[in-house]
Amino acid sequence: MEGPGVHAIAARLSPLAGRRVAGSIGRSRFPLGRLDGGTVARVRAVGKLLFIEVPPCTLRIHFLMWGRYRLEGEIPGKTPKLAISFDDGSTLRLYATAIALFSSGAAEVHPDPTLDPLDAGWDLERAARLVKARGDELICDTLMDQAILPGVGNIIKNEALFAARVHPASPSGCIPARALRRLLTGVRDFSLTMFECDREVKSLRPFLKVYRKKVCPECGGKTESGRPGSLERISYWCPSCQVKTRCRDR
Asked: Is the pTM value of this prediction over 0.85?
């Protein structure tokens, strides 16, 4: 699940704030019983991680590839990884997720939100410096690095590269400053589009320009696909519209 989907879940679960935890049952090596009796202070997302703050603890949830949740009812035939019941009779059930529990003040609880393109305080210039510092690493790999752009997944990567007219096999450190800012702005813009679709339960398909497309919507030419980079995630690009950046000193 990409970051926008997790942000949409956080928005839907925000009404949990103020509810008291009546009990918690789950399969985890963490002492989930520490949540019992606490009151939810906040639900938020940073990148691909969901955080439910129940002072003095914070529950961190990663939805992995197939994670799901239910606030009302259950998924038939599925056993939840964690079920949290509240004093109003509601129950939050989490399926196929990775769960961790921290003390609220622990440094490892929250990644830096200013690196999340969906955060109001996102620092584009800092993101640009981190990307440039990757040197010869291909931009298709750098954009997927959660330490630089938490929340970015393969769909956002492909669409942002197409919007910026940057080839996925371009070395990160060699992309001109103007093109890099255009690329990072595209990351943010498509992340917002995906978030709105997830929040409103609308199809993302009308907004896809290159992902899984065979024809370029700009020039009408045939697109290409492959797995450049060490991550070997599928990339789609238009060989006419997307320029492969080369370093000037080579």
From this structure: yes
